[in-house]
Amino acid sequence: MIPIEEIYSDPRIVENLNACINCGVCTALCPAADYYDYEPRYIERVVLSHDPVALEELMSSDYIWYCGQCMSCKARCPRKNAPGVVVSALRYWSQKTGLFAKSKMGRNQVLIKQSIGQNIYDLGYCVHPSKLTKEAHPEQGPVWEWIFNNREKAYSLVNANIDKEGAGPMRKISDDAVNEIHSILKGTGALDLWETIENSVKETSINNKK
Amino acid sequence: MKKIAVIGGGVAGLEVSKQLLEANIPVTLIEQSSKIGGNIKNYAYLFPDFYNAEELLNSYHYLITDPNLQLLLNTEVAKIDFSKKTYNILTKDGISVPADAIVIATGYNTFDARLKEEFGYGIYENVITSVQLEQMFKNKEIKTPSGKIPERIGFIHCVGSRDAKVGNTYCSRLCCVTAIKQAIETKKLLPSVEIFCFYIDLRMYGLLFEDLYLSAQRDYNIQFVRGRLSEASEMLDKRILIKVEDTLIGKPLQMSADMIVLMVGMEASDFSKQFKYHNGLEVNEHGFFNPINPHNLRNLTSKDGIFLAGTAIGPMSVGETLDHARGTALSVLSFINAN
Amino acid sequence: MEANNEPKKRIYWREYVKDIPKNDYFYFRSCIRQTFFPGAEQMFLKILKNNLNINYKDDPNLTTCTGIGYHSDIIPLETVHTMVARHFSLMNESGYSNFVSSCVTTFGVMTEALEMWHEFPETLEKTRENLYKTTGRTFEPPKAIAHASDIIYLYRNEIANQLKYRLINQYTGEPLKVVDHVGCHYSKIFPQHGIGGAEFPKVLSEMVKAWGGEIIDYPERRHCCGFGFRQYFIKESRGYSLTHSQTKFESMEPYHPDFIITNCPGCNMFMDRWQYVIQETTGKTYSEDDNGIPVLTYEEIAALLLGYDPIEIGLFMHQTNVLPLLEKLGIDFDKEQFIAMRAESMQLQPQM
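Predict the joint structure of the above. Result:
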């Protein structure tokens, strides 16, 4: 049972679902449609059908995880829809209800929570040089590897006070600021979402082992 | 002696004038350009049977010499006044045209395709409009601007129509059948050219239109892809790269073409933009003049004595325009006789 | 600023220029730019201060906007709105009212927040409530939001007058051929927030033209670089990101660009790194000298042409070697030091 009313009142869905004419303009230029077997048009179609069974199936599948959030669709749609924004909303509800754990790509969200989410929580940044190891990001190349191993030198050459107090790029975010982040994450439901993400994936893997 | 002013020298205005002159009513025909004919001057052949547009226009030429017709070319309307139960049109040159009734036959503009930047019109030389292609039919020669004979041409439906992003959400009705007509004409001139029509829906509303579509596929091998053009970009050799989705297969499609033809829609004329709330004239949300009732009072405005004829009220074919204009002439005659 | 800002009548987007504030900027840093191109941010501030005499505030209490978290779907809508509100609150406290963001994702997230608060006032109320109950803060939205590249666009002619070098190839005397890559979230979400609209955004191309270069139009110009947020962060879908950058490279190659200029830090990083990956895995490079096409941010290019030191700008932190570009531009710099740094960072023997 998915919270149909709540999903359809999500402002992202209300605003960006204006009856699709299936013209294909969105799918024509969608990078995800090029790379995966995917059409943003299909997302609009299912959501517009108001069919709870189809919607639940969609939210439990890999399908909603193909989008790269570039919003090229929003720029072109002649009915002023935005499949990319609708996908954002569906992904949220898929995680909130735990349905995301039924799909392989969905379960990968736990990795995002553990990397990006944890960075936000611990450091106040989404991305931090100390986390971009060669193992995690071999594609960053040899120059980055050198920077990673010679951080102090590299950053000081460009006047960046990495991990130090005061203003500047990659500064240490003060404890006060980090505490405010914690409070916001807690009070707006992010920490709850993260817990749901972890638990749903754990449950699925336990169930899969049985 | 009653006198009628007709604003607009296109086929609607010409037909109304013709009917009134035959009933011995004097007409002042006000036309902003240097020639009569309006938009039909841009057409070579009319769908669905490739009727010669120039012949149709020429059938009105005799009116110019009618002593009861005052033809004002190169004349634009500045103001329409109503006082003492008669109208007075003031032109931009300062000429006063008194009239007992006025017929608005101001036609339409084609959509300015430069507004649809993702199609590259006005930027890439091999993107042209259906109006420009029609001119090539008149010259009986189809070439790209650089003089090359195209080997593949794409027809792009719905340019400036059914598009909230450019402010025209309505369908212009006639572009689909025009595209098929032009595709067939192109194939006749260049038998070896490959033609693709990129459409969303095919609006074959006229009795013979579906037959034309069938003929296009069966006799002329014209290919139809159900996918609206998303983007046209220019390749190194100036050919156009088309990006659409083949929605019937459900996959994105990229294709190169030597030339693409944008089927530009019909929009309200400049006159309607200028005179929209003037003296009882109303426009609807799409900018065209509103008749009192779209069913049985299609020629009348809410102002007594001001009438509408032709595409001033919305997209129409030539045949439909002439039907409508004859109705307008009848309404004008009834009005004059009653007053 | 009117959140929705949509022009009242139809316009040719290519000619569209939005209102850009002229001074007193509240600067908001970018997680990705700070990580990969920290020199670029410092150069932006230096240019504001030393070259343009513009007042700005660099508040250390700012944090991530969580936009990356939002687009990777682990940050709920209410959270990102509240984080945005927190930063507006800090801006209010500082007395500044012109918000300038370094990151294009931040720019996108903030314009979306403002627009949603406008269309759905209950979301604004909820955000106020959330911010207050979690931090005790209140806030007012800024008068103006701009991206840092808008500022450089605005002052491109003033900068042009101070340039030590222009975008001319010193060997041939010809203007350099430049690919301008504008970040997707800059104008695809709301064309009225991008200079020149979504199809022919001109924030970067006008800079290039003002500084003597020539812009290349190629078929995949508007194609996303492929960041894809979660597509990149998850190893198994990282190929998504590589594929789209590659699509762009393949498309621009026949036009022989001398370099790529970007305004989004992510795009800059990806197009810089993926050329290396393509070379390692397939042997292919996209430039005639086999070096690859250097990818620079607008701050880096502006600083370079104004005569700032390439090392201080941080050009040694690029994977695709910037040296051929420095030579084409005729930059006067410590070439030996640069080459030595390159060798060290590439773990190679130095080559002269």
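The longest helix of chain C spans residues 77-94.
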